[in-house]
Specification:
alpha+beta, 16 helices, ten-stranded antiparallel beta barrel, seven-stranded parallel beta sheet, single chain, elongated
Length: 564
């Protein structure tokens, strides 16, 4: 295998994950990618669609036919099985592995089936004798979770628990093989580690909540994750023997489909149904039909352990991916591995689960090429002693302009003054809303005075525009407002995401309630609201509130003298 010209056969090359591998690698001139599958026309269509420096060759490949003959004919240096579902590979699930070993061809797969990944080590002797590597599980579970756990465990004397979850975008294309895999373990027994013991539970019948939040970005909504059958339940225990519990879940959206899946899994566990494979086609149609909500996805890994002083430490890594970049993550481990090979860092020979081949730094270099961001938070930080905005923004607070940081720093009470211009909406509804809240009338160059008062966990903002006064209460979001800044105007409560870009602070409404009742996001007042620095170095604010039915309610722009 020459590092200067690597010939890679991607089985299932035009499928959901195989196509993403080809897309990720299309700009690599040192590669020849054989896009393989039963349909030559579909392979040809993908190769024509992808324009890059890599040589893409469509080939017909049938994993149920004479594999050794096909491999010898195609002569790849490396085989990647991206087809699946690996839970349904029949009576001889490792036939492609055996064929690759017989032909002395390196092999890797994107399996996330526990039994398949854990069983690959049975071929270690044969792979070693053939002088090749055989790696299984080259996907988010377990490769990325293990890479993150290694990073988070730095500085810990022991690792006691790992909790992880993935929340795909509701707009992500879900392949039929993924649906078949889910149907195969829903409601079926799963071995998990709890209190240092192996216990049996049932797939998709247990749930936990977590809010995925990356510093300086809008968090995902609080998400319910349900237990899934992945190799991590077994392999993490092997890497960290001190582990007392492992819990891995998925949080598909929309929530009502997730709830239906939980009910069906429970019925299977109660033996009302034997399995869900028969309704997998209906599941597939439902998932790909009901697509609404933000086109964003994410993942988290929480690690709890003890440091050298026997203190309990909990660290959480969160990732958020925008748009179509999130679905690329499960295929990124394959790209990272191939780049290592091209750069002369070939994995050691032998057969094993791919737990240590890819580090988080390898992923991060790929994340930087996409709209994917991550951050780490240590929950032992004394947040109660932080300022409110610092508590919400966490590490992103340091990226704000200094005068914005100064404006939000005060221990008990602070008053600042400046000037502003106010613009009001013209509709009767906008005038009514503005009157009820107390927003000022339209005017130019009006005197502004803002008094901030801190009371325990809350901040009272009292604003005075000339003779007009109105106030709001701000606090750290909890529950359905987790990860957000909460601002209350009387009976209206808003959850605001704090976003940092180029040192400026943007406030983006995410959710709201009226008299404590959750309101439709389609009616949520929005607008372009941010804090920045003007040409004189002063703190500048730009607040715009626009309601869907009322139009512009108010917009006020001005500056304040920041005081310590």
């Amino acid at each position: 295998m020459s590092e200067l010209n690597l010939r890679v056969l991607v089985v299932g090359g035009y499928g959901t994950f195989g196509a993403r591998i080809a897309k990720l690698l299309k700009k690599e001139s040192r590669l020849t990618i054989l896009v393989a599958g039963r349909s030559l026309s579909r392979a040809q269509a993908l190769c024509e669609q992808l324009d890059g420096e890599a040589e893409l060759i469509p080939v017909r490949f049938d994993r149920d036919s004479k594999l050794v003959d096909q491999l010898r004919s195609l002569q790849p240096h490396f085989v990647i099985d991206a087809s699946g579902p690996f839970q349904h590979y029949g009576h001889d699930p490792y036939r492609l592995v055996k064929a690759a070993i017989a032909c002395n061809i390196h092999y890797a797969d994107l399996a996330d089936a526990s039994d398949f990944v854990n069983g690959i080590q049975a071929f270690n002797k044969e792979a070693t004798q053939a002088g090749i590597f055989v790696l299984s599980g080259l996907s988010s579970f377990p490769v990325l979770t293990c890479a993150v756990t290694r990073r988070l465990s730095v500085g810990l004397q022991t690792v006691r628990s790992v909790v992880a979850g993935i929340a795909p975008s509701p707009h992500a294309v879900v392949g039929r093989n993924v649906i078949n895999a889910i149907a195969s373990y829903a409601g079926k027994p799963i071995e998990v580690t709890r209190q240092s013991r192996q216990e049996t539970t049932f797939g998709l019948t247990e749930s936990r909540y977590h809010t995925i939040k990356v510093d300086g970005l809008a968090p995902l909504p609080p998400t319910r994750f349900s237990l899934v059958d992945v190799p991590d339940h077994v392999v993490i225990k092997k890497l960290w023997p001190s582990i007392e519990s492992v819990w891995i879940g998925a949080g598909p959206r929309p929530e009502f489909l997730h709830f239906c899946l939980n009910v069906l899994a429970k019925l299977v566990s109660l033996k009302v149904f034997t399995e869900l494979n028969r309704i997998a086609p209906l599941m597939d149609k439902s998932v790909n039909f009901f697509r609404f909500g933000q086109h964003r996805g994410g993942m988290f890994v929480s690690v709890e352990g003890t440091d050298n002083e026997a203190q309990t430490i909990k660290k959480t890594w969160n990732l958020i991916a925008e748009g179509d970049d999130g679905p690329m993550i499960p295929s990124m481990a394959a790209k990272a591995l191939i780049l290592k090979i091209l750069n002369g860092r070939k994995p050691e020979i032998g057969a094993r689960a791919a737990l240590s081949e890819i580090e988080l730094s390898d992923y991060e270099s790929l994340f930087s090429q996409h709209k994917i961001a991550s951050s780490v938070h240590c929950e032992n930080t004394l947040e109660s002693e932080s300022y409110l905005y610092q508590k919400v923004l966490r590490t992103a607070y340091r990226d704000l302009h200094k005068n914005i940081q100064t404006m939000h720093k005060f221990k008990a009470r602070k008053t600042v003054r400046g000037k502003a211009t106010v613009v009001r909406g013209n509709s009767w509804l906008s005038k009514l809303i503005a009157h009820l809240i107390g927003f000022p009338a339209a005017t130019d160059n009006i005197d502004v005075e803002v008094t901030f008062t801190r009371d325990k966990e809350q901040e009272l903002w009292q604003r005075k525009f000339g003779t007009y006064r109105f106030e709001s209460v701000q606090e750290f979001g909890k529950g359905r407002f987790d990860g957000l800044l909460v601002e209350r105007f009387g009976f209206l409560t808003f959850g605001l995401a704090l976003l940092v870009h180029d040192g400026n602070l943007y406030l983006q409404p995410q959710r709201w309630t009226c008299f404590g009742i959750p309101m439709p996001c389609g009616l949520l007042p929005r607008g372009n609201t941010y804090e920045t620095t003007d040409d004189l170095g002063r703190f500048q604010f730009h607040v715009e509130i626009v309601a869907p039915l009322a139009g512009l309610i108010v917009k006020y722009i001005g500056w304040l003298e920041a005081e310590d």
